[in-house]
Specification:
heterotrimer; A mainly alpha (307); B alpha/beta (300); C mainly alpha (320); A: mainly alpha; B: alpha/beta; D-Maltodextrin-Binding Protein, domain 2; nine-stranded mixed β-sheet; three-stranded mixed β-sheet
Amino acid sequence: MKATAQARAPRRYTGDLVLATATGVAVIAILGLLLLLLFEITRGGIGQISWKFLSTAPSKGGLAGGIWPAIFGTMALVLLMTIAAVPMGVATAIYLHEYAHPDALLTRLVRVAVANLAGVPSIVFGLFGVGFFIETVGTRIDDIFYDGGLLYGKPAIVWAAMTLALLTLPVVIVATEEALKAIPRDHREGSLALGATKWQTIAHVILPQALPGILTGGILAVSRGAGEVAPILFTGAAYYLPFLPAHPTDQFMHLGYHVFVLATQSPDVNAALPNLYATVLVLLVLTFLLNLAAIVLRARIRAKLRH
Amino acid sequence: MQRARYFAVLLICIGLLCACAKRVPQPRHQPNASAKTSNSITIKGSDTMVLLGQWWAENYQQAHPQLIVQVNGGGSGTGIAALLNGTTDITQSSRPLRDSERSEFRAKYNHELIELKVALDGLGIYVHESNPLNELTLAQVREIYAGRITDWQNVGGSPGKILLYSRENNSGTYEFFKEHVLEKEDFTPRTQTLSGNAAVINAVSQDISGIGYGGVAFAKGVKTLAIKRDSQSPAIPPLFEYVTSGAYPISRFLYWYLPNEPTGEVKKLVDWVLSQAGQNALKEIGFFPIGQTEHVATSN
Amino acid sequence: MWQQATNRRRKHVLEWLTEKVILVTALISILSILLIFYFVGRKAVPILTNEVIQQTANLAEFFRPNGTTPDGHTTFIWQPISERPKYSFIPLLLGTLKATIVAMLVSVPLALLAALYTTEYAPRQVREYIKPAIELLAGVPSVVLGFFALVVMATWLQKLFQFEMRLNAVVSGCALGLAIIPVVYTVAEDALSAVPRALREASFALGASRAQTLLRVILPAALPGIFAGIVLGFGRAVGETMIVVMASGNAAITSWNPADSIRTMSATVAAELAEVVYGSAHYHTLFAIGALLFIITFVINSIGDWVIGRLNTRLQGAKR
């Protein structure tokens, strides 16, 4: 290719140069913006981070104290969400890749549904969480099991987690399916030829190999779930709670929601800035670590796919 | 081998789930449970009052560490909805309940809910610190927010367009301002609405031509104007003595609503809040104790 | 002998059962979409059926002029708390559109050029780092972008452009742009790298320069994929919530001026639902906005996915 480059006419060469520069600049601009964001937030937040900040509850409306309940709430939320989203997502991916006929109407419908689920605005998920989980499912549970008392028919961590589980379902499905694609056909055929049934093949041959992919999906889902605020606005997040959620019907504090509240509703914006920056930093570090882990895992799967 | 491991993982997951779910649900926050034995109190409602409620809770809990007081925001409307469906013990509201809301409660529970005035809030008109203006009449504020006065020089300031900031349209503060300052007129659509008091102050503090309103409790980094009831009357700054005496024209009560006559722990909390100690705690975060004075803006 | 038979039967039953369980789980995705539509739509229906609610909120009210400016022109107003509530969707739609257009203007050129660089110019090792880095950008929670836009970007942009209103369509659009760069980039990059090698080599063999090959051969071949990326990015920008709640100024102004504050559909729902009177006209109107948002994004995403699907089949066809 070097040879052709030398043979080019000057005009063409200018076009090349312009295009190469423009594209390069675009990449630098994007990464520059990302770095700028990271730099600004780190600079503003790092000074405030301390063990005390991470391990105590906020006081004075978030101006003082730490963010431990928000960290715990976020973790509890994504744990519940993962328990729901990962099995559903993995099963769907297995169905799509192992059981379904690729051109069948149902398969196509499932794919369309998954793609569209990924595109539903997060605030619509929030509305859905209120209309379905809280006002329909929750109220029914209360009517049947608690004599119409009020336990599940109100914002609660379990409903926020369920709402988020639906939101992150596509992430798990896509990642798992990618991992399933990376498994060579021969492994399936070998297992089936040895007399294993389809499910045995899946459980003992396919799933163990797909585990990194499933893990990637799970991690990405957790990262996404940890950062989404709009769906939990009405389904369970609380401004301030003096205790940690211990029951599925408790409300919870959440890092992202805490950021939102501090940025818009704190009693004194400037006094809240250090804690605000630090909370953003914690949230960002959390999601970045998760994303990095997922990226590394996925890179390994893709490398395997290429061989 | 493999399968055993999966089973182990599965069991752990199920165990975790059970650990979460098996806890006996406490029959909490039942509005009709007359003798409340539970050691937690839920307070919900106005965002303006979250800080206030939390501050009271913090102070009260120091003396009563066994009691859990949970304070949520979400807005006066959320708090009132929670009161209706029994998810809260106390609702904080920065506006008096509407008749429709009262009658809805009456229809559901066959008795009136309890209204308590717990604090006084002075609403300040904020401008940028470098704004030479020091006072406005109520009518001028109204003309500005209705969009009829659009330049600072028309109200005695230096020439420049006025940029308006307001609270989100369903906050109690917004409603109060609309009722008593705008006299029920609509805000001009050019008003930027922000979701909290702090956001308004922050916006005005960074905007030379901005004007905003909100609790004087929060006004830091902005100039709070003195207000004249009409062009003849004196300009009154929102200072402690003027707000508590009712001389400052834009002040309002903040309310607690309870589903029943308070009993048990709730009663103790309510009594403490209305006591000298509870009312004194207000000053530290910039609200005002409820005096005996009638307040003009809130009473008409 | 019979034990083997029962074993086999048990195995068979288990096999059948797992398959059905997996099938049913797979149907959850379809079910969720239907349920979302049903449960959001159901709360919007009183707008069409309930006569009391229709007195203040109805389809005609949503789209026709419903107020006057101080200087006497008719205009569209979103003013749900009022003596006469005004529920015009026009300022909200306009606000959403303005922010989205700015977001597209910011993100599409950057994302496409970056995708071109990654597939065409970047050395192999560099490429291995660019993609994950941009994926990291996708991992930034939108509330963090909203915070960044509110606290940092708004100030910079105001200094740069001398904006009258600090928070406006441009500020929120730029932050939205950051959020959708990864979406456009990923899809476009996939489309570009899926262009068969043979096309490229044939072009070079005919003496075309790299730029010519890129612009005349590769880009046209990848165009459907790029289009899909843009469409999906658009869909994401329309529905994005936290960024616009925090950084748009939230004033429902009916104007085309990008330096005015805006109030988007998603932000309106997020800001107002928490405090609205349950079952009121306002409450159902907010669900109607949600339903409209769902329908808009559903259509946009379906177009995008349809294009990607067609592209995939075509490319697979080409490979075969």
